[in-house]
Amino acid sequence: MRLHRFFVEEKIPATGLPATANSSKEEVERWQAGEFSVTNETLLNQWRNVLRMEEGDKAVLFSGDGYESLCEFVSLTGKIAKKSAVLKVLETKRGLVTTREVALYIALIKKDNFELVLEKATELGVSHIIPVQADRSEKKGVNYERAEKILREASEQSGRATVPAISEVIDVEKIPNDVVVFDPRGEISAREFFSKHTTAPVSVFIGPEGGFTDAEIDSFHARNIPIVSTGTQILRAETAAIVALALALVK
């Protein structure tokens, strides 16, 4: 049976030192024994009331550092465990980590489409997501609590052992010169570009609904930012993001 995977904010014993220097004697002893506590109320509710997990059940946990641990529930129900669960690490191994650093600069788009990009970008292996306020962006901000939840859940589902970082929104003028812009007006095909650049870190920039303005394209040209095309078809912003990341990451 396939084990459930969960992201936890707590450090896992086999991958580091205790989270705080003022840990109690009991916490230190538990840590040395390979045990640790999880206090996230959402996770506790999911384990107890949704999945009906019990002491002795096993799950795979990861904290985003590239490792994952097979853990056993030591304490999950009853008076002691009302606000925490105690797990014991049985095995730790290197998890699934993409071999190429890819940052996605994505213009702010409609909420549902933006969330779809977050989910699919995580599944494909993106390292970093940077929302951008472009001239034609309709959306004016990011719900970071919601976004980070989507990133965590997509990491759990896809089997990766890291969670992408998401940055504060920047203006289009602030994008770096080393991005690769995706736009139908590009003079080189995206496939050709990525066939020549296969392993080095790369940043891709996807425009908003309605695409980049002529002024933005002129600005990219003036800064010698490469513009690549996926063909003559006009792709939706969320589709273009998935295509771009697939070209950069899927080998």
UniProtKB/TrEMBL annotation:
Q: Which residues form the signal peptide?
A: none
Q: Which SUPFAM superfamilies match?
A: alpha/beta knot, PUA domain-like
Keyword field? Cytoplasm, Methyltransferase, rRNA processing, S-adenosyl-L-methionine, Transferase
GO process terms (BP)? rRNA base methylation
Give the source's domain of life in one word: Bacteria
A Gene Ontology molecular function term for this protein is: rRNA (uridine-N3-)-methyltransferase activity
Gene3D superfamilies xref list: 3.40.1280.10
Where in the numbering of this chain does the Ribosomal RNA small subunit methyltransferase E methyltransferase domain appear? 101-247
Enumerate the subcellular locations listed in this protein's record, separating them with semicolons: Cytoplasm
Q: What is its EC number?
A: 2.1.1.193
Statement: the UniProt record of this protein carries the keyword rRNA processing: yes
The catalytic activity, as recorded, is: uridine(1498) in 16S rRNA + S-adenosyl-L-methionine = N(3)-methyluridine(1498) in 16S rRNA + S-adenosyl-L-homocysteine + H(+)
Q: Name one GO cellular component term.
A: cytoplasm
Q: What does this protein do?
A: Specifically methylates the N3 position of the uracil ring of uridine 1498 (m3U1498) in 16S rRNA. Acts on the fully assembled 30S ribosomal subunit.
| Similarity comment text for this entry | Belongs to the RNA methyltransferase RsmE family.
What is the protein named? Ribosomal RNA small subunit methyltransferase E
Q: Name the lineage.
A: Bacteria, Candidatus Nomuraibacteriota
